[in-house]
Amino acid sequence: MDTSEPQGRERGQTSGRARAGGAEKLNWIDRRREKIRTEIERNRRGDHKVPTWVLAAALVLIVVAWVGLILYFG
């Protein structure tokens, strides 16, 4: 069992607050957990909008530019 899943609940099941007509009202905690769960699943599938190496390169560029500015003006 996945440690993020509460005991007694299968993956993909909701908290059981179903209403007539199949519509379900979730409180904000349940909605937030579902958003996080779907984002993790999407990331595991590899459906990234920006590749990780691009984000890492941008971070390195920002840090190098920041250090360069400190050394140049400092």
Features:
mainly alpha; elongated
- Helix- and strand-based class? mainly alpha
Overall geometry: elongated
Major pleated sheet: none
Q: Give the integer mean of the pLDDT values.
A: 77
How many distinct helices?
Answer: 2
Percentage of residues in strands: under 5%
Work out the radius of gyration. Answer: 21 Å
Secondary structure tally: strands: 0
What proportion of the residues is helical, as a percent range?
Answer: 40-55%
Secondary-structure element string: HH
- Ranges where pLDDT stays below 50 over 5 or more residues in a row are none
Measured distance between first and last alpha carbons: 54 Å
Describe the structure.
The chain is mainly α and 74 residues long. It contains two helices and no strands. The chain has helices spanning 28-45, 52-73. The radius of gyration is 21 Å and the shape is elongated. 0% of the residues are buried.
